Amino acid sequence: MCRITEGMVLDVLQTAGCKNTKSCVVLPVATGMALLTSLLYLKQCNPHASKVIWPRIDQATCVKAPQSAGCQLLVVEPHLQGDSLVTNLELVEELIQEHHSEVLCVMTTTSCFAPRTPDKLVQIAELCKKYGVAHLINNAYGIQCSRCMSLINTASLQGRVDLYVQSLDKNFMVPVGGSIVAGFNKDDISSVSKTYPGRGSSTPVTDLFITLLSMGREGLHNLLDQRIKVYVRLKVLLQDLAKRYNERVLDTPKNQISLAFSLTEENLKEGITLTDIGSRLFHRNVTGARVVTCTSSKTINNITIHNFGSHSDRYPTPYITFAAAVGMSEQEAEMLVSKFGQVLDKAYRQQ
Fold it and tell me: How many CA atoms lie within 13 A of 96 on its CB side?
């Protein structure tokens, strides 16, 4: 069953846009542990290297995984271009040159919360090939986005990509606890599989096996097509809502999963805070929306990240994010925006 499931997953990865993928393995751990497993394999290949160059993405897992592998993070702050946060390629290359023999890998990200956009994978892959540095991609929920998968595919053809990792629950709507490590060399994936210590639960493989069989290729691709329509619909609805409150949907066209809606603290009624908006949505059964105040910091082990959640030390405006994820319907998008409008009606002064 495990081999059949991995065969189906390989077909999914290839038809979703990453045609160059040669092999994959389903691990009975969530995405963070799969990143850790991948890092430990890369460390076996290069035992004297201990530094990971990391274009910043504000998810605690992305900090904890390299630290758990005994690595030092070299954080790359993004550039602000318009509303979008994009990869600082110049700094990535400078760090590779400065720490070359000590660099274990560059760990990039595709799927992310707006206003962060997918890293410039192709250019980074070219740098990794040029300098002989490994490249690990966090593609947590990128299977559902053809742009993310195409970026990985092109990066693997034009440069160096060693492994890319994705979540089962985020892409296939199965319970939390499984992940996929894929790559472009069968020997690498076989070695990653052997790196996993001991035994593990068969539940993630069984859940995925049943899900893929029940969906079929056509059913899955219908869901992926539906997600694109939901994204477009959600964006239009949020833009219409923003006009009512003198806000705007941040312009992040390269992020085709997540949308960010600006929040202006001065527009709030007395006694209401920005984070109250998130909590009021939660009480209306809206989950997954994140209010980012651009003021809070977070220390993860020994690393302090300023303005945690905003992916940048200096993002200019607070906002709330929403995602058009696989499995969501246009009706649910309409219901979401309706509830968000109700919350803003009660939280904002009359415009």
Answer: 23
Can you give the length of the chain in residues? 351
CA distance 41 to 35: 10
In the chain, the N- to C-terminal Cα span, in Å, equals 59
**Residue-wise pLDDT tens digits, 222-257:** 999 999 999 999 999 999 999 999 999 999 999 999
Strands 134-138 and 163-167: parallel
pTM: 0.95
Tens of pLDDT, residues 8-37 = 999 999 999 999 999 999 999 999 999 999
In sequence order, what DSSP letters do the residues of 70-130 get, joined into one string?
T-EEEEEPPEEETTEEE--HHHHHHHHHHSGGGEEEEEEESS--TTB----HHHHHHHHHH
Question: Would the pLDDT of 140 be above 90?
Answer: yes
Q: Select from 268, 273, 349, 258 the least CA-distant residue to 309.
A: 258
Whole-number mean pLDDT of the chain?
Answer: 95
Q: CA 179 to CA 37: how far, in whole Å? A: 11
The Cα–Cα gap between 84 and 243 comes to 20
Least confident of 127-131, 212-216, 294-298, 318-322: 294-298
Residues 6+ apart with CB under 8 A from 90: none
Pairing verdict, β 134-138 and 103-109: parallel
Sequence-distant (6+) residues with CB within 8 A of 299 are: 305
- Check if the beta carbon of residue 157 is closer than 8 Å to that of residue 132: no
